[in-house]
Every structure is written in structure tokens, then in C-alpha cells.
Amino acid sequence: MIAKKLKTFLDQRNVKYVVVAHSPAYTAQEIAASVHVPGQFLAKTVMVEIDGALAMAVLPANQRVLIEDLRDITETEDVHLAHESEFREAFPDCEPGAMPPFGNLYDMSVYVSPALAERHEIVFSAGSHHEVIKMAWRDYEQLVKPHVVNFTM
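Above: the chain's sequence. Below: its structure in C-alpha cell form.
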């Protein structure tokens, strides 16, 4: 089921989106295959900790986060990948590892790869391991106001 907080947020703002159900999938590449979307078009959310605060790094499923680049961007040495135990409780309406890239709903900064910003549409986990959301990039950008920066390989 789509994360309740996200559904309420989108519906209250009359944002158009499509929920696509798929067979259970747990990795970004499995999800992309399940919904017949190339890996470079599916946004995955990787949780990072920057100066002790949780943040979201949102990038294509077929890419990896370059921590050193995030350190340079944020101008701090205190950046590392967050372990699930560090962020699980921050997403009470989501299945572990299926967080939608809406940091604004969870009081977190969001860093998005320019590769996703170049597309007209963004596709991402809806808070479960069996649904994704497709919506217009411009709507996502307007709602989330992410930092669009290079931090991937």
C-alpha cells in the first residue's frame, strides 16, 4: 500500500500520479525489471547521514552514491551511508527500504541526481515493496525542492 503520508500529501495538492502494482521486489534493479522500466529511469532512495542528520540521496537505480562527492557538495567530512537501523523509525508508514523520495515529508534534505531531473517523469517506490508511483518531474521538483547535484557513478 502507498505510504499514507505521501498519498495524503499528493491528494491534498491535486497532483496527478499513477500507482503501479508489481510482484514483490526488494532491490532497485528488481523493481525496475518488475515494472518494465529501465534502471536508469527508476529513482532509488539511498539514506545518508550528513553532520548527524538523515538525508535522502535519490539517483537512478543503475548508479551508485559517491560519498566523497556528497562530502564536497555539503562541505563536510561527516557524511556516510545510513544503516537501516538508523532510519527505520523515521518512516513508520513505509516498509523498510521502500521510502519514497519525499524528504520534505520526513524533515530531511533531498539530493537528486541530474540524470533524474533531465526526465519528464519520475518513478519511485511508493512506500512498499510492491508498488511504485509515476508522476511528472516538474510536480516532484515543485513539491520536494530537492538539491539537484552530481554525486553518482
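The chain has a mean pLDDT of 94.
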